[in-house]
Amino acid sequence: MIKIDLIRESSFFIPTPQLKELIILDYIEDNSDVTQKELAKVANAAPSMINVYIEELEEKGYMKREYISAKVVNYLITPKGIQRKNFLLITYMRELLDLYHMAKRNVETFLKGLEAKGYKDLLLYGAGEVAETMIGVIRDKEETKVNVLAIIDDDVEKQGKEMMGYRVIAVDEIGEYEHDAIIVTSYTFEKDIIKKLDNIGYESGKVVKFFGAIEDNNI
Protein backbone atom coordinates (compact mmCIF):
# COMPACT_ATOMS: atom_id res chain seq x y z
CA MET A 1 0.00 0.00 0.00
CA ILE A 2 1.12 3.56 -0.72
CA LYS A 3 2.53 5.41 2.28
CA ILE A 4 -0.34 7.86 2.67
CA ASP A 5 1.28 9.95 5.43
CA LEU A 6 4.43 10.39 3.36
CA ILE A 7 2.43 11.85 0.48
CA ARG A 8 0.20 13.97 2.68
CA GLU A 9 3.13 15.48 4.61
CA SER A 10 5.34 16.03 1.57
CA SER A 11 6.45 19.58 0.79
CA PHE A 12 6.78 18.89 -2.93
CA PHE A 13 3.99 16.54 -3.96
CA ILE A 14 0.71 18.41 -4.05
CA PRO A 15 -1.97 15.74 -4.57
CA THR A 16 -3.20 16.02 -8.16
CA PRO A 17 -6.51 14.46 -9.28
CA GLN A 18 -4.49 11.53 -10.65
CA LEU A 19 -2.67 11.00 -7.37
CA LYS A 20 -5.92 11.17 -5.41
CA GLU A 21 -7.41 8.64 -7.82
CA LEU A 22 -4.43 6.36 -7.21
CA ILE A 23 -4.68 6.74 -3.44
CA ILE A 24 -8.41 6.02 -3.38
CA LEU A 25 -8.14 2.94 -5.61
CA ASP A 26 -5.15 1.63 -3.69
CA TYR A 27 -6.84 2.16 -0.34
CA ILE A 28 -10.21 0.60 -1.14
CA GLU A 29 -8.48 -2.45 -2.62
CA ASP A 30 -7.42 -3.39 0.92
CA ASN A 31 -10.23 -1.66 2.83
CA SER A 32 -13.60 -2.35 1.22
CA ASP A 33 -15.47 -1.20 4.33
CA VAL A 34 -13.81 2.23 4.34
CA THR A 35 -16.01 5.25 5.00
CA GLN A 36 -16.08 8.40 2.91
CA LYS A 37 -14.79 10.32 5.90
CA GLU A 38 -11.78 8.01 6.08
CA LEU A 39 -11.19 8.29 2.33
CA ALA A 40 -11.22 12.07 2.63
CA LYS A 41 -8.47 11.83 5.23
CA VAL A 42 -6.19 9.44 3.34
CA ALA A 43 -6.65 11.27 0.02
CA ASN A 44 -6.21 14.68 1.65
CA ALA A 45 -9.44 15.83 0.04
CA ALA A 46 -12.52 17.68 1.22
CA PRO A 47 -15.19 15.24 2.46
CA SER A 48 -17.67 16.89 0.11
CA MET A 49 -15.49 15.91 -2.87
CA ILE A 50 -15.09 12.23 -2.05
CA ASN A 51 -18.52 11.29 -3.33
CA VAL A 52 -17.69 13.10 -6.59
CA TYR A 53 -14.49 11.07 -6.94
CA ILE A 54 -16.33 7.84 -6.14
CA GLU A 55 -19.04 8.52 -8.72
CA GLU A 56 -16.42 9.27 -11.39
CA LEU A 57 -14.50 6.09 -10.60
CA GLU A 58 -17.73 4.11 -10.65
CA GLU A 59 -18.78 5.58 -14.00
CA LYS A 60 -15.43 4.59 -15.48
CA GLY A 61 -15.83 1.05 -14.18
CA TYR A 62 -12.90 1.22 -11.80
CA MET A 63 -14.95 0.42 -8.70
CA LYS A 64 -18.44 -0.45 -7.57
CA ARG A 65 -20.53 -0.11 -4.45
CA GLU A 66 -21.94 -3.02 -2.52
CA TYR A 67 -24.83 -2.02 -0.28
CA ILE A 68 -24.74 -4.01 2.94
CA SER A 69 -27.63 -2.02 4.39
CA ALA A 70 -29.29 1.34 3.92
CA LYS A 71 -26.42 3.00 5.78
CA VAL A 72 -23.51 0.63 5.21
CA VAL A 73 -21.71 0.53 1.87
CA ASN A 74 -18.65 -1.41 0.78
CA TYR A 75 -16.45 -0.09 -2.02
CA LEU A 76 -14.98 -2.76 -4.29
CA ILE A 77 -12.23 -2.24 -6.85
CA THR A 78 -12.87 -3.96 -10.19
CA PRO A 79 -10.32 -5.75 -12.42
CA LYS A 80 -10.40 -2.67 -14.64
CA GLY A 81 -9.76 -0.58 -11.55
CA ILE A 82 -6.74 -2.70 -10.62
CA GLN A 83 -5.33 -2.14 -14.10
CA ARG A 84 -5.88 1.60 -13.74
CA LYS A 85 -4.30 1.64 -10.28
CA ASN A 86 -1.22 -0.24 -11.52
CA PHE A 87 -0.84 2.15 -14.45
CA LEU A 88 -1.05 5.19 -12.18
CA LEU A 89 1.37 3.62 -9.73
CA ILE A 90 4.00 2.92 -12.40
CA THR A 91 3.65 6.49 -13.71
CA TYR A 92 4.02 7.85 -10.18
CA MET A 93 7.10 5.68 -9.55
CA ARG A 94 8.65 6.83 -12.83
CA GLU A 95 8.41 10.46 -11.76
CA LEU A 96 9.88 9.65 -8.35
CA LEU A 97 12.78 7.83 -9.98
CA ASP A 98 13.46 10.80 -12.25
CA LEU A 99 13.73 13.04 -9.18
CA TYR A 100 15.92 10.50 -7.39
CA HIS A 101 18.29 10.29 -10.35
CA MET A 102 18.54 14.07 -10.43
CA ALA A 103 19.43 14.11 -6.72
CA LYS A 104 21.86 11.23 -7.24
CA ARG A 105 23.70 13.13 -9.97
CA ASN A 106 24.11 16.10 -7.65
CA VAL A 107 25.55 13.87 -4.91
CA GLU A 108 27.89 12.17 -7.41
CA THR A 109 29.19 15.57 -8.54
CA PHE A 110 29.78 16.52 -4.90
CA LEU A 111 31.65 13.27 -4.23
CA LYS A 112 33.86 13.79 -7.29
CA GLY A 113 34.82 17.17 -5.85
CA LEU A 114 35.81 15.49 -2.58
CA GLU A 115 37.88 12.88 -4.41
CA ALA A 116 39.61 15.56 -6.47
CA LYS A 117 40.65 17.29 -3.26
CA GLY A 118 42.08 14.06 -1.89
CA TYR A 119 39.41 13.50 0.75
CA LYS A 120 38.88 9.79 1.29
CA ASP A 121 37.93 8.91 4.87
CA LEU A 122 34.91 10.97 5.93
CA LEU A 123 32.65 11.63 8.86
CA LEU A 124 29.11 12.79 8.06
CA TYR A 125 27.51 15.28 10.44
CA GLY A 126 23.73 14.86 10.50
CA ALA A 127 22.02 11.46 10.64
CA GLY A 128 19.18 12.28 8.28
CA GLU A 129 17.93 11.86 4.72
CA VAL A 130 20.94 13.53 3.11
CA ALA A 131 23.38 11.19 4.87
CA GLU A 132 21.24 8.21 3.84
CA THR A 133 21.20 9.36 0.21
CA MET A 134 24.93 10.01 0.17
CA ILE A 135 25.69 6.58 1.63
CA GLY A 136 23.36 4.99 -0.91
CA VAL A 137 25.13 6.73 -3.80
CA ILE A 138 28.55 5.71 -2.47
CA ARG A 139 27.44 2.09 -2.22
CA ASP A 140 26.07 2.17 -5.78
CA LYS A 141 29.31 3.48 -7.25
CA GLU A 142 31.48 0.70 -8.64
CA GLU A 143 34.66 2.69 -8.15
CA THR A 144 35.03 5.30 -5.45
CA LYS A 145 37.78 6.39 -3.11
CA VAL A 146 35.33 7.88 -0.64
CA ASN A 147 34.83 5.97 2.58
CA VAL A 148 32.36 6.89 5.33
CA LEU A 149 33.66 6.04 8.80
CA ALA A 150 30.77 7.13 11.03
CA ILE A 151 27.93 9.64 11.34
CA ILE A 152 27.92 12.43 13.88
CA ASP A 153 24.62 13.62 15.34
CA ASP A 154 23.66 15.75 18.32
CA ASP A 155 20.49 13.76 19.02
CA VAL A 156 21.31 11.58 22.04
CA GLU A 157 18.53 9.20 21.00
CA LYS A 158 20.47 8.37 17.83
CA GLN A 159 23.93 8.20 19.36
CA GLY A 160 25.31 4.71 19.91
CA LYS A 161 22.95 3.25 17.32
CA GLU A 162 23.56 2.49 13.67
CA MET A 163 22.22 4.02 10.47
CA MET A 164 22.69 2.00 7.31
CA GLY A 165 25.46 0.05 9.00
CA TYR A 166 27.37 3.08 10.30
CA ARG A 167 27.69 4.01 13.95
CA VAL A 168 26.12 7.28 15.04
CA ILE A 169 28.50 9.13 17.36
CA ALA A 170 28.57 12.28 19.47
CA VAL A 171 30.73 15.23 18.50
CA ASP A 172 33.20 14.48 21.31
CA GLU A 173 34.00 11.13 19.67
CA ILE A 174 35.40 12.71 16.51
CA GLY A 175 38.98 12.24 17.71
CA GLU A 176 38.56 8.48 17.75
CA TYR A 177 38.43 8.39 13.93
CA GLU A 178 41.31 9.12 11.57
CA HIS A 179 39.53 11.12 8.89
CA ASP A 180 40.17 13.63 6.14
CA ALA A 181 37.08 15.81 6.52
CA ILE A 182 33.65 16.23 8.08
CA ILE A 183 30.77 16.59 5.65
CA VAL A 184 27.89 18.64 7.05
CA THR A 185 24.78 16.89 5.74
CA SER A 186 22.19 18.89 7.67
CA TYR A 187 20.49 21.85 6.00
CA THR A 188 18.39 22.99 8.96
CA PHE A 189 21.22 22.89 11.52
CA GLU A 190 24.16 23.68 9.27
CA LYS A 191 25.04 26.97 11.00
CA ASP A 192 24.73 25.39 14.46
CA ILE A 193 26.99 22.52 13.43
CA ILE A 194 29.63 24.86 11.98
CA LYS A 195 29.55 26.90 15.19
CA LYS A 196 29.84 23.80 17.39
CA LEU A 197 32.85 22.53 15.43
CA ASP A 198 34.45 25.97 15.64
CA ASN A 199 33.86 26.09 19.40
CA ILE A 200 35.74 22.81 19.93
CA GLY A 201 38.62 24.08 17.81
CA TYR A 202 38.04 21.80 14.86
CA GLU A 203 40.03 22.75 11.76
CA SER A 204 37.69 24.79 9.54
CA GLY A 205 39.49 23.71 6.38
CA LYS A 206 38.36 20.14 6.99
CA VAL A 207 34.66 21.07 7.19
CA VAL A 208 32.72 20.68 3.95
CA LYS A 209 29.11 21.83 3.64
CA PHE A 210 27.00 19.67 1.34
CA PHE A 211 24.55 22.56 0.92
CA GLY A 212 27.28 25.16 0.53
CA ALA A 213 28.42 26.69 -2.71
CA ILE A 214 31.37 25.03 -4.43
CA GLU A 215 33.50 28.14 -3.96
CA ASP A 216 32.65 28.18 -0.24
CA ASN A 217 33.88 24.61 0.14
CA ASN A 218 36.79 25.11 -2.23
CA ILE A 219 36.09 21.81 -4.00
Helix and strand run? HHHHEEHEHEEEEHEH
What is the fold-level CATH name, i.e. the topology of the largest domain?
Answer: Rossmann fold
Q: Order the strands across the largest sheet as they lie in space.
A: 5-6-4-3-7-8
Described by the principal axes of the CA atoms, the overall outline is: elongated
Distance between the termini: 42 Å
CATH architecture of the largest domain: 3-Layer(aba) Sandwich
Overall pLDDT confidence = 88
CATH class of the largest domain: Alpha Beta
Structural class of the secondary structure composition? alpha/beta
According to DSSP, the number of beta strands is: 8
Count of folded domains: 2
Biggest sheet record:
6 strands, mixed
The DSSP helix count reads 8
Radius of gyration: 24 Å
Strand percentage lies at 15-25%
- Extract low-pLDDT stretches: none
Helix content: 40-55%
What is the CATH superfamily label of the largest domain? NAD(P)-binding Rossmann-like Domain
Features:
Arc Repressor Mutant, subunit A; elongated; 219 residues; six-stranded mixed beta sheet; 2 domains; alpha/beta; Rossmann fold; 47% helix; 8 helices
Please outline what is shown here.
This protein has eight helices and eight strands. By secondary structure, the chain is α/β, with parallel strands linked by helices. Strand 7, helix 7 (190-199) and strand 8 form a beta-alpha-beta unit.
